[in-house]
Amino acid sequence: MNYILRLDNWIFRNINNYLKNPVLDGVMSFFTILGGTTISILLCISLVVFSQGNSVGKESVYSLTVGHFMVQLFKRFVSRPRPYLVLPGVKLRRGFILKDYSFPSGHTAASFSIFTVISIHYPFIAPVLLTVAVLIGVSRIYLGQHYPTDVIAGAVLGIGSAVLFSL
């Protein structure tokens, strides 16, 4: 376990401290917004409205709801502080101070839960959606909000909730 935590911190530091530049600041902020609550809910509503009888919309809503419930359950059970509360020198954008726990990443879980459902129904778009979901997860590390294991756990929860309702 100690090895995993050291590796987690090392990967976090390399992404958060050493990749910093103004262009990536903007790009990563954009991807973080894509994984947020507002965009996730609007995307689900759009899928329900425009799915034309296909179950992709309902499955996305169910997957997002269950994924979010599981994220909140794990956050309370694990109670892992966010990296900027524990590690010195974390590069954090202003206005990004959150009061909840770090594990798992809700943004990552939301994006993977919705994008996995869409990918199951429309496999031709899966590579693009997977790339966007991964960038959302990386953005959470880049912006100092999550450790890599938080992002991996969010992805697993999101994929799991999607598979639960799509197969």
Describe this entry's structure for a reader.
The protein has 167 residues and is mostly helical. It has one domain (2-166). Helix content is 72%, strand content 0%. The protein is built from eight helices and no strands. It has helices spanning 2-16, 22-34, 37-50, 56-78, 83-86, 106-121, 126-142, 148-166. Helix 4 (56-78) runs antiparallel to helix 8, helix 6 (106-121) runs parallel beside helix 8 and helix 7 runs antiparallel to helix 8. It is globular and about 50 Å long. The model has no long low-confidence stretch (mean pLDDT 92).
Summed up, the helix count is: 8
Percentage of β-strand residues = under 5%
Distance between the ends: 34 Å
Q: Mean pLDDT, nearest integer?
A: 92
- Total beta strands: 0
Unreliable runs, pLDDT <50, ≥5 residues? none
H and E string: HHHHHHHH
Molecular shape: globular
Biggest sheet, open or closed, and with what strands and sense? none
- Classify the helix fraction into a percent range: over 70%
Count of distinct structural domains:
1
What structural class is derived from the secondary structure elements? mainly alpha
Radius of gyration: 16 Å
Write the layout of secondary structure elements.
Elements: H1 2-16, H2 22-34, H3 37-50, H4 56-78, H5 83-86, H6 106-121, H7 126-142, H8 148-166
Helix pairs in contact: 2-7, 3-4, 3-6, 4-6, 4-8, 6-7, 6-8, 7-8
Could you list some keywords that capture this structure?
8 helices; 167 residues
